[in-house]
Amino acid sequence: MIALITETSTNLPSDVRKAIADAVGNDAADSRAGLAMSAITLNIDMAVDNVGPVCQDTGMPTFFVHTPKGADQLAMKRDIEEAVVEATRTGKLRPNAVDSLTGKNSGNNLGCHVPVIHFEPWDRDEIEVKLILKGGGCENKNIQYSLPADIPGLGRAARDLDGVRKCILHAVYQAQGQGCSPGFIGVGVGGDRTSSFELAKKQLLRSVDDTNSDAVLAELEQEILDKANRLNIGPMGFAGKTTLLGCKIGTSHRVPASFFVSVAYNCWAYRRLGVIIDPKEGSISEWQYRYPGEIKRMARGAGIPLTGREVVLTAPVSEETIRSLKVGDIVIVDGEMHTGRDAFHHYIMHHDLPEGLDIRGGIIYHCGPVMLKNEAGEYTVVAAGPTTSIREEPYQSDVIEKLGLRAVIGKGGMGPKTLAGLQKHGAVYLNAIGGAAQYYARCIEKVTGVDFLEEMGVPEAMWHLQAKAFPCIVTMDAHGNSLHKQVDEESFAMLENIGKEQA
């Protein structure tokens, strides 16, 4: 189980590699979409080389276990839990198990109903274990529809195949860049509210390149891919020709009163692998989702290459410098930055920073890193990509004003309240490449300190970092311009056009 967790976290499967590789050339290399894909492919290679998490958000480890008759599932559960604890200790998993009421992080990824383990019997002698690590950003873009319903941009969705089609297309649209596109989706049609979502997530266990055994669903899966990629959402929501890399649909019987369509969205960092285990030896006899001829090296560029025209930001940053930036500019952060995400934003609205800490003119990074402490008591960054910023929308403008911030780094963009705050207070939003945890970890030279570690846990603590050549793109500027708003509006117009075609 330790081998399965390690490999799943650090080495994307063959079918996912091929899907990403096929998409790399769809947009110009020097476009925003092209730069995002370049950083993504380089990050995939770095994760393997470093045996580090592809993305710092390793989600809620979810295991699907097929067992032969008479298998000791309690012993298997204990083995899985011990492996999860060890993988967390070594930095292959980020400690993500948080008490829902107290907010206390267990620190070892064990907790009430965590990890998630689904046991199912089968008539074979060996044991099969599949693991999916699905980060919170894409998990938050899961969506469920109850038909009949009016679908924004597409009109009335009835309890039929056309209604299902409309739901799926809207699900892709609403994910935008917040789900770290280009993504993959699993769809569950039917069942009850709970089983429909479970069916959707199980579709993510299918191979990207398989063909649905139901000819009608196979045709719909391909149609969704074609139409979703016309939405021009693109990698990271930067606009582009590749928005969706895979669509898998499963159906279940339902009761007459209910018709649910559930969509499980998965980011490009599609981490799922499986193993067949010899029940006598306890050893792995076969790896699943690993194919002969696998693409071993993915990178086709240097990530976000430096041209010399980038704007270098070193805190404290002046308002004049910020006002000179515009959407589309590439920015390089050198020097001090500070992480701050959900728990920090809530806390700082009611409290002050620790005594002696002044970050006016500074840069805050929406990031929940993976950290390891060495024997000298020093922390090192194992993985440090951006988290989805929209969760901080209720707080961000007020936090910018209170702390005197000049830049916010995250992914997926933010909303109108933050955009107005940026304009009023002279700040910018910088979009880093979602999921590129190894790519950005190499840009952190040193951890200079940490606050709120005991209270908030590793992902939510305020880490003080020294960055070098940390690249990102201005997507919301201090003049009221937002690339995210623009792409959302344009993709919605395209969604409406697709709806008219279907009508």
UniProtKB/TrEMBL annotation:
A Pfam family that the UniProt record links to this protein: Fumerase
InterPro entries referenced in this protein's UniProt entry, alphabetically: Fe-S_hydro-lyase_TtdA-typ_cat, Fe-S_hydro-lyase_TtdB-typ_cat, Fe-S_hydroAse_TtdB_cat_sf, Fe_dep_fumarate_hydratase
Superkingdom of the organism of origin: Bacteria
Group of enzyme by EC: lyase
EC number: 4.2.1.2
Subunit structure: Homodimer.
Location of the Fe-S hydro-lyase tartrate dehydratase alpha-type catalytic domain: 3-273
Gene behind this protein: fumA
Protein name from the UniProt record: Fumarate hydratase class I
UniProt-listed GO biological process terms: generation of precursor metabolites and energy
UniProt cofactor(s): [4Fe-4S] cluster
A GO term for molecular function: metal ion binding
Residue intervals passing through the bilayer: none
Function field: Catalyzes the reversible hydration of fumarate to (S)-malate.
Swiss-Prot/TrEMBL keywords: 4Fe-4S, Iron, Iron-sulfur, Lyase, Metal-binding
Family: Belongs to the class-I fumarase family.
NCBIfam families linked to this entry: ttdA_fumA_fumB, ttdB_fumA_fumB
Catalysis performed (reactions): (S)-malate = fumarate + H2O
Occurrences of domain Fe-S hydro-lyase tartrate dehydratase beta-type catalytic (ranges): 307-486
